[in-house]
Each structure stands twice: as structure tokens, then as C-alpha cells.
Amino acid sequence: MKRQIRRNWDLYVLLLPVVAFFIVFEYVPMYGVQIAFKNFIATKGIWGSPWVGLHHFERFFESYYFWRLIKNTLGIGLYQLLVGFPAPILLALLINEVRSRKFSRFVQTVTYAPHFLSTVVLVGLLLIFLSPESGLVNLVITWLGGEPIRFMTEPSWFKSVYVLSGVWQQMGWSSIIYLAALTAIDPQLHEAARVDGASRWQRIWHINLPGIMPTITILLILNMGSLLSVGFEKVYLMQNSLNMTASDVISTHVYRKGIVDGQYSYSAAVGLFNNVINFILLIVVNRVARKMNDTSLW
Amino acid sequence: MVNQSLGDKLFGWVVYALLALICVIVLYPLIFVLVASFSSPGAVMRGEVWLWPKDMTWIGYKKIFQNAEILTGYANTLLYTVIGTAINLLLSIAAAYPLSRKDLYGRNVISGMMVLTMFFSGGMVPTYLLIKDLGMLNSMWALILPGAISVYNVLIMRTFFQNFIPQEMQEAAAMDGCSNIGTLVRIVLPLSMPIIAVMILFYSVGHWNAYFSALMYLTDREKYPLQLILREILIQGQMQEMQGVGDNVLAETVMQSEAIKYAVVIVANLPVLLLYPFLQKYFAKGVMIGAVKG
């Protein structure tokens, strides 16, 4: 062991800045999370501020915003899971059925592209296309004889716009991992099934889908683990005073209360609550998955 | 090819039709923006532009090059992206290579310490306070250092080093008296260009598109990256107009932004659009190597 360490000393030198990074930028903030249980006073610092126990958590649970935040965050997360999660799986199964190399390459190139647009540009595009006066979507709706819909300010539309634009942007990119899993399926299985007279639909259902099940399970676990960490950056950009009842989520609440208003301890408590719930969800789902079909993260 | 049944043939056509529809839905908004950027703002607002520019004009692009804030933002973003990506790449290699070596004592402890941060973190407020204490508020480093290593990318890289660089070559180099770092620089890295290209793409797109850390940490407008300027042009003006709180000054910015918003989307995404076809063969590979691990 000692010889091993001595021989690889330069590898440890290489790791030194890496370990320093994780300590400073990941573990120091984790240690700093204790301000959630304190009353942070800037002049006294994190260490010197007085303990207040669960005071900030109680304040959050009793606040007017609590149920609204839970409802919105969970609602968006579940909608995302129900619609956003299966979309790339379907796309990958479809692309896998294409015989023409060229067409398959074309579809992939096109559907991956929106992944590289920034959140700011994506929300900008939403505003352009969904505008009640000049947006293309509403032009089509009025042309078909309907009334223009105020997608970006009507609270009841918020979740759908958020999730469906996410599908538009990420469906292609997220399908890559399933496509990789599909190419790993033994072609002999298909050959045998074809000889036995199985139709293409049956082969997808009985060979391809079971073949990528482990991948689906792993990604489902990861997705469940972030059920409550709804993409902050996009929600924040889509928010406005008119849709706030539907668009206020835990992470944007933390930003407003903490960074903007300077209530550090209170918002650290809200953020910690969110993190803990996510962590518990991840562990529970992982355990369920391991029991049910032997696939799990650890 | 075996003779296909009628059902299978029909099925094939449905697959093609669905995929074609998906391509149209994904592609059309992008084409529309490109076309609209060359059309007169009035024609776009009246809904007369569909697939071909109407009253061709360069006015949007001209206005961008007269707008000092957009140009500074562009320069800032370039700077943050180049420096940020360089640091990302160096640190990721420094993390991934030692951890790819099975003879490294303690690699599991260090890996574990890294992976834990994927699932649990201090959160926004403690991180903000840390940046404040380090005196990095309103500086470029606040945008670059906190996210300097992505654990996910390190895992992809480590998997690549483990599975695609022949172990015997590294052992032979060590036998010939090559130090570990020498092996890394002379043997491993030259063989790892595909994965390095992927990392450059992932990290640089991340920096190019980031807006939130800039919103949180920067106060000087001269330091704003492009995305924050874009946010004002594309989102804030429109939002205020929709909420009916706009005043006269704002009405003017809205008209101004109407003329440039399409062109600005094109200009902002130009580097990515130019790099995309170039790097396309590499980047899907990167995701797939990540999948091998899973």
C-alpha cells in the first residue's frame, strides 16, 4: 500500500486541486446549511450567529405560500414525469424502426438541435410564438375560428406550456441514451421472432421495450429524485405577476426571499427542506426499483 | 429482406409519417426565426411572414451592431466561455485520469465524495454566502469557479479512460520510466481527442447559455454576459407589455426590440450553430459512453 502511494504520488498532486474544489465549493456550503437553524447575522458570520432551532421551518410550514408552493412544484414535477419522461422513449423506439440511414441521421440532427438553445432564447421563442396578438399559434387558432389564448399570463396554461416546451427542446437529446440501449439488443432475438411470425409491433413490445427497461428504470429513479427540483432557470423566466399563482415554485421562492430580500436563514431552511425531500424520494424509489426488477443505482 | 406483411408495411409508413411530423414541429420555429430576422418587423407583426422573408431587410442585424450593450455582452460571454471551459477541462482531466487508475489507493473514497454532491448540495443561499465571503461578488470568477467541475462529465471521462485506452500501453510507458503525468500527457490524452471534443462542447455550451449565476452575482452592466442582455430584449419588455405596466419609455424599447429580436436570436446562437454540424459525430458518442456506465 505504501509503495502504491509513493509510486503514484504525482496522481495525488493532480487530484489536489480537484479535492480542494469539492471541499470549498460543495462541502463548505453543505456545512453552511446550518444557518437554516440559526438567525443569520452578517457581522457574526455563519459560526457566530445564534441558534433558533426549527423556527424558520415552522415559519415556512405555516406561511401563506407553503401549500401553493408544494402544489405548484409537485404539480409541475408530476406533469413532467407523466408527459416529459415517456416522450424520448417513444422517439427512440420510432427512430430505431427507421431503415434508411440517411433519414434516421436527419431526424436525429433535427431533434437534437433545440437542446443547444439557451433557456433565455427558449422562453423568448415562447413569448414570440404564443403572443396573443401576433404569435403564430394564436394566428392559427383564430384562423380556425377560435379565440386567442393568453398562454403566458393565464395561470391554468402555465404547466402545459412549461412541460410541452421542455419536450420540444429535450426530447431528441434525451432519446440518445435509449437509442444506445436499443443498439445493444441482440439482433438474433429479432431474427428468431420474425421466423416465428411476430409483427413489427409485437417485436417492439416484446423485445425492444424489455431490452431497454433497465435504462428506463435508472432514468426514472434519477427523475424521481429531482421531482421537487423543477428547473428553476426556466420557471423564473416564465414568471410574471399574472401567472404567479401557478408558477411560484420552491426554488424561485428561495431565490426571491433569500438572494433578493436577504432573508438568508429562512430561505436556506426552505431550500434544505426541498433537498431533504428529494434525497428521501431518491432513496425510496431506488429501494422500490431494486425490489421490483433488480435494477438500481446502488 | 424478408417479405413484409401488409400490417408491417403500414406500420413502417406510420413511423415515417410520425417522425416527419416531429421534424416539422421541431424545425419550423427555428426556420421562422431565421426568416423573420430578414423580414421587415411590420410584416412579421401583421403575420404575413411564413416561409420566405417579406420586404427583405438587414435592419435587425444593423441595429445589433450599433448596440453597444449587445456587443459588450457578446465579448464578455466569449471571454467567460473560453476561460471557463479551459478551467473545466483541466480540472476534469485532473479528476478523471487518477480515478480511472485501478492502482490508485483511495480512489473509491474520492469518487464517493464527488458522487455524493450529485444528490445533495448546500443549496442556493449557502453557496451565495460563500461567494460573498470569498469576495467574488460582481466578478467573473463567481460565474466560473462554483461550477468548475461537473461530476457527470468526470464520470463520462473516467469511463472513457478505463475502457478505450489500452491498459498495456500505460503499463509499458511506466516500465520505460515514464511518470504518471508523462503517460497522461504523451499517451492517454492524444488517444482521447473524441472525448475531449465532447467535453469542450458540453462545457462551452453551458457557459455560453448560462444566465442565472450572472443574474445572481453580477451588478455592473458592463460585465453582463450576452444572455442577460437577451433576457431584457426578448423577455422583460414583452412581459411588462403583456401585464400592461409599460410606460412610454418602455413602449419605445418594445418597438426597438421588435426590430431586432429575431436577428439577436440568430446572432446569439451563431457559434453553436456553426460548431454543431462539425462536432455532431462526437457529441452523441459522449452521451453513449455515459450510458455504458449506467
From TrEMBL, chain B:
Transmembrane segments: 12-38, 78-97, 109-131, 143-161, 181-205, 259-279
Domain ABC transmembrane type-1, first and last residues per copy: 74-279
One Pfam family it belongs to: BPD_transp_1
Cellular location(s): Cell membrane
Keyword terms, alphabetized: Cell membrane, Membrane, Transmembrane, Transmembrane helix, Transport
Membrane topology field: Multi-pass membrane protein
Protein name, per record: Sugar ABC transporter permease
PANTHER family per record: ABC TRANSPORTER PERMEASE PROTEIN MG189-RELATED-RELATED, POLYGALACTURONAN_RHAMNOGALACTURONAN TRANSPORT SYSTEM PERMEASE PROTEIN YTCP
Gene3D superfamilies found in the cross-reference section: MetI-like
PROSITE patterns, per database record: ABC_TM1
Domain of life of the native organism: Bacteria
Similarity comment text for this entry: Belongs to the binding-protein-dependent transport system permease family.
